[in-house]
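=== Given protein ===
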Amino acid sequence: MNASSKIGPLSAVSAAELLLDKLTRGARAALITVLEGPEATVGRRVLLTTRSPEPELAGSLGSAEIDARLVALGTRALAGAVTEGAHVLGGEPELRVYVELHAPPPEFVIVGAGHIAQPLSTLGRLLGLRVTVLDDRPEFATTERFPDAAVVRSVDFTDPFRDVPIHGGTHVVLVTRGHKYDFEALRKLLASTHEPAYIGMIGSRRRVRATFAQLVKEGFDHERLGRVRAPVGLDLRSETPAEIAVSVAAEIVLVRRGGTGVPIAEQERIMDRFFKKEEES
């Protein structure tokens, strides 16, 4: 377990401030508050976050043994083995605690601020994603061009994600003005220990094939590379920037919700399933 950033008890204010900071950095967190137990422990809270390989504990109940039990409970909760709510923490002393689970907001990072990025930014906000737009051209990376984005930033494409947290709730689309920039950004994402929920990269079949061949040659994991959506988007025969943005947004929804991409009318086949039977009878 990493050393605690705050060895004393966390106040409600300090816990909220720390929680917000951790979520902004892409961490998932479990806030644990003591409801019942020895008088000295009641009302105390600790915050467990998991972004680095080991859990990090902030706050303490004043006992290394109790803190270790809280870390074990919080780790299990963040892994999905313990539900949010009240739990009895066995041992000596026995504690009744409340576990709150928090995850960073779903993010949409658009690398490239060209014509496709503008409708993508609007659609991302409509889908409830927190939109970040990155480009190396200050005149393109402006809030005037991207009023729906929460963050618009001019970056160096050699390291575009240096100040942008990438986590399991991040959706990244690479639509820069040049294939080499998309390639470098993709390489950075694949080298990260934190895999985004979605990576989509624009490009022709030939360029995508060349990109994948180079990354395989460099030793990147085949399975992880196979999850990259490239060429990006669903096959809608899109032509305009707005149409391309719709196809990309639709694919993001498909990945988030676990859809099939098959037209609902084809799945239901109302005419075949109902009216054909009536004609036969």
